[in-house]
Structure prediction request, 375 residues.
Amino acid sequence: MPTTPTLGDRTLALQWPDGETIDLHYIWLRDNCPCPECKHPDAWERLLDNVEIDLDVKPESASFDEFLDITWQDGHKTSMSAAWLQANRYGREGRDSRREKPVLWTSSIAKDPPRISLGEIDSGDKGLRRWLTLVRDYGFAIVTGVPTRVGAVIELANRIAHIQETHFGREFQVISKPDPENLAFTSVKLTAHTDVVNRRNLPGLQFLHCIEFEAEGGDSILVDGFEAARRLREQHPDMHDLLASVEVPYLFLDNGHDVRNHQRVIVLDGDGNHEEVRVHSALLGAVDLDPELIEPFYQAWQVFGNILRDPELEYEFKMEPGDCQVFDNRRVLHARAEFDPNTGPRHLQGTYVERDDFMSKLRVLERVNNEFRLS
Ligand code: OGA
Ligand code: ZN
Ligand code: ZN
Prediction:
């Protein structure tokens, strides 16, 4: 049954079938007109120059059913679907409904860790979508049955998108070797860290594929950085807020590189939700905060570091040849125990994919019908 929206001075009020009323600003409605004059039908981008819209734009009349139909005072007509309006509501509630909802986890995830075989991924879009959904929700998934040869990890990553290159190149071999470029290429223990925190655009998804593993030790650990940040916020809000507000230097140096940036250890979105955790003890430069913040910073860094190392949060496992860890490097931290290179080889190959490309792939797989063009 069509209803007539109530036309106010700056907004109109719509009543949803469930009885709820929402107010929508005229300027916002006019800006989002999806007609072919305002939105290019093929490029799906805005043609309307919204710098030129009259801020006092007003409807002449409006009706609402499955579509909100507006005739503006200058005669332009706008027709927007109720589904689009519902999906794109503004304000905190609307943003929350569209936000990713990470499923936080602790060590008990070991009972049923997110795992998927390469065979399932390659069985069709459903398999690919299940893999990417696991990574989005849990921040990681172990892919099993990846061929144990150099290059297979690139092919796995390319099922999502192109590679995100860094100063380590397109990919890297994790083996214990003389003259290592970084600590991962030794046999020492690596505490829980985020890779490549020194880059402003740090790698999104990280892949670590086990090609050979006969050495003793070298177990893997994953930790949910968002659960750790949640605990820090609950237990020590002041320390949490300090790490989420000050910027510290992270740097990578070798003979040909000097890649450095100031970064926050905990990155929040505009609503205060955890968006990134950037922790890498080995890459922290000489902290250059104001003198009164030096001790509070180290105190907060250590308290957070200890939460990240709490066995209650650690998912510990041993990789087997053919396994590939795939994790969201902005959320899940990784670690490994020391290993003894004299007891046999340990060879992983790693690479990265941009987080935007990963989420884009998943959203495209989630498209049900042409509605996506409207949202
Ligand atoms: C790395 C790393 C972990 C491992 O290469 O970034 O942290 O298990 N490796 O060797
Ligand atoms: Zn239009
Ligand atoms: Zn690493």
In short: Residues 279 and 305 are 8 Å apart (CA to CA). The two ends are 24 Å apart (CA to CA).
